[in-house]
Write a structure and sequence with these properties.
Blueprint: E1 21-25, H1 29-35, H2 40-61, E2 65-72, H3 80-103, E3 106-111, H4 119-131, E4 138-146, H5 148-164, H6 175-180, E5 192-195, E6 214-217, H7 227-238
Parallel strand pairs: 1-2, 1-5, 2-4, 3-4, 5-6
Helix pairs in contact: 1-2, 2-3, 2-7, 3-4
The structure holds 3-methylbut-3-enyl trihydrogen diphosphate (2 copies) and magnesium ion (MG).
One 3-methylbut-3-enyl trihydrogen diphosphate (IPE) binds near residues 30 and 71.
Length: about 250
């Protein structure tokens, strides 16, 4: 598998190819709930259901990798009861959905600071990754307790340590080596990054990997995201002209 900046090639029919990797910043659960006079937790609950829609949409579109930003390193700064709600939902999701993901031929991979997650969640993740490791239909990457700056710092530290210990030379540090030290090692860069809720920012998501990603900002709030929303996003992507700096 090749990683890094990869132009999406046109297929022989002249039709633009499906993105290999789609990443989604699932935002707007709180606003969805407050618009209905409900507690934020109700928005998160509906948001977890929308995850199923995104996965089905991605499988139907033939996407190889789907990355979902579920909890950022900065989300730890939210009130304790909200963090607890989100962790509870995560456990519920993992316990209920893993078998179905496995049946659909989906491989699960989690990226982010695992050390900040509870022991039982870590055990569930280990089990799920192990159970689905041979699945090839699609890889679902869940970014949990994830922050891109953390990830880049960890990579820099790992490489610096190897250099200081004399195992690697400074000259050998290139894009491929740096990529290999990121938590996303081996994954192609995202072709398309979608953010719901109308916000237009990355919020510390895939800063290195997004070098040549296409962005799609939708006003839809995450709990309202459906398979059809995903299909429309793919169609929009297929109309984009990607240049990778190479064409005038
Ligand atoms: C996204 O919804 C879920 C997480 C960030 C965990 P928000 O909780 O950020 O919802 P808004 O942005 O307040 O509407
Ligand atoms: C980004 O959403 C993180 C996730 C969707 C998991 P936030 O709601 O945390 O981002 P900001 O605070 O609006 O930038
Ligand atoms: Mg938000």
């Amino acid at each position: 598998m090749t990683a890094g900046i990869q132009p999406v090639s046109e297929n022989p029919g002249g039709e633009v190819a499906t993105p290999r990797h789609v990443a989604i910043i699932m935002d707007g659960n709180g606003r969805w709930a407050s618009q209905r006079g409900l507690p934020r937790s109700a928005g998160h609950k509906r948001g977890a259901e929308a995850v199923r829609e995104a996965i089905t949409g991605a499988v139907k579109a033939g996407v190889g990798y789907l990355t979902l930003y579920a909890f950022s390193s900065e989300n730890w700064n939210r009130p304790a009861d909200e963090v607890m709600d989100l962790m509870g939902l995560l456990k519920l999701y993992l316990s209920r959905e893993i078998r179905s993901l496995d049946k659909q031929g989906i491989r699960l991979r989690v990226i982010g600071r695992r050390s900040r997650l509870s022991r039982d969640i870590n055990e569930m993740i280990d089990k799920a990754e192990e159970m689905t490791r041979d699945n090839r239909r699609m890889t679902l990457v869940i970014a949990l307790s994830y922050g891109s700056r953390d990830e880049i710092i960890d990579a820099a530290r790992a490489i610096a340590t190897a250099v200081v210990e004399g195992r690697e030379s400074i000259e050998a540090i290139d894009e491929a080596r740096f990529e290999s030290a990121l938590s996303t090692h081996g994954l192609p860069d995202p072709d398309l990054i979608i953010r719901t809720s109308g916000e237009q920012r990355l919020s510390n998501f895939l800063l290195w990997q997004a070098a040549y990603s296409e962005f799609l900002f939708l006003d839809t709030l995450w709990p309202d995201f459906t398979e059809e929303t995903f299909a429309a996003a793919i169609e929009e992507f297929q109309g984009r002209d990607r240049r990778f700096g190479a064409r005038p």
